[in-house]
Amino acid sequence: MISSIEKNKCTGCKMCGDICPSGAVDFKTENDGCWYPTVDEEKCIECGLCIKKCPALNIVPSDNNSDPAVYAAWSLNEKVRYDSTSGGIYYEVAKAFIDEGGYIAGCIFSSDFKTAKHVIGKTYDDLNAIMGSKYFQSDTAGIYKEISTLIKNGEKVLFCGTPCQVAALRSFLGKDQRNLYLLDFICKGINSPKAYTAYIDEIERNYKSSVKLVRQKSKKTGWQSLATNIIFQNGKEYHKDRYTDWWIQGYTCGNLFMRENCQECLYKTMPRQADLTFGDFWGIKGCSDEDVQKGISVVFENSQKGAELIQAAIKNLHLEKRSLDEVLDGNPYLFGQAIQKGNRSEFFELLDKEPFSKAVKETYTENIVQKGKRYIKFILKHVFKRKKW
Ligand SMILES: Cc1cc2nc3c(=O)[nH]c(=O)nc-3n(C[C@H](O)[C@H](O)[C@H](O)COP(=O)(O)OP(=O)(O)OC[C@H]3O[C@@H](n4cnc5c(N)ncnc54)[C@H](O)[C@@H]3O)c2cc1C
Ligand code: SF4
Ligand code: SF4
Known about the structure:
This is 4Fe-4S dicluster domain-containing protein. It contains 15 helices and 13 strands. It is α+β, with helices and mostly antiparallel strands. Strand 6, helix 7 and strand 7 form a beta-alpha-beta unit. Helix 4 packs across helix 11. The longest helix has 16 residues, at 368-383.
């Protein structure tokens, strides 16, 4: 039964819930805030589909190119680039898709900015909600069935998600679908929704107001500052960077509240599951400092469909050919596993009693000397050179 899957394997893609023909699979959220499947034995008809199709128990094969064309890219629209997490390539590809009458499926924040889920949309308003990375797990319950229905009705769909969610969708549908276009990203690992909610709750308490807008990896102090920017209903603003924000400390440096299975991800590999793969072009050489501060995406063109998507958006993109080695120089998580450094179980126990920042501080503290060295390097490289834009 799928409910006996080990926690360090299950990706939480929720595809087994959608594929079960008798509605026997549901999900239980554990104390780490991550969900895992449960099976109602009375409803289960023992067809075995959940196990046969699970992308964590069976690697989903891909015919995509194992040596894809690699580009550095960004949107030519300054606002789109500013509002996006990297260079805004997702927005331009999805906008062109909507303009041709297609549906987009991706991740949005809940109205209180404390959880995230996958939805299907067709308008620019939908696109504005879907753009931007949310660095914690999105709830995908029902999305596989909804996409399947649209495809059966002859509609075109552009799905974007983590590589394991893309693998789950491909496994659910069973064969390559002409009308389905797939996007994924280089994925370090996904975080616990409970940790993220606790992080926002604490900041709301400190600012005595509820959140109106959250931007992770805000460009206000430059792309490389990895800052979180939060606007509150009372008009106040929170803006902290990689050295001062406890979420970034726990995730970027410690992988402290990441889903357990992400330490042994099956999809950090080539060929990719999706038609296009996006990422951050960290460490890119030969671009101006201004461009680096505005954000630069890496794009892998993994298939003919990927090439079609790029062609459709090309008039709104800056695109230059680069190599895989250049990407690997600055992006270890394309192939490398993210290893958790702090004490994860203690962190989640503490989180039940203490504010988020205290739980991070007490279970993960970076060596002070390393931190000091990184901070001085950052100041020398960016702060003195930074331009306002
Ligand atoms: C959890 C996570 C880890 C990542 N790790 C890396 C990394 O190690 N290296 C790297 O180069 N890039 C990483 N990225 C990708 C990077 O942050 C950008 O999303 C990517 O470069 C595309 O940028 P963009 O500006 O074009 O688009 P954006 O506007 O940022 O892209 C938005 C698209 O991403 C999807 N998305 C956003 N959040 C989620 C989510 N929680 N779950 C599923 N789909 C989501 C949305 O549906 C939307 O379609 C990660 C992204 C996420 C969400
Ligand atoms: S990886 Fe996905 S399909 Fe497999 S058990 Fe976990 S939630 Fe279900
Ligand atoms: S690291 Fe792998 S398993 Fe974890 S969310 Fe990303 S693609 Fe899925």
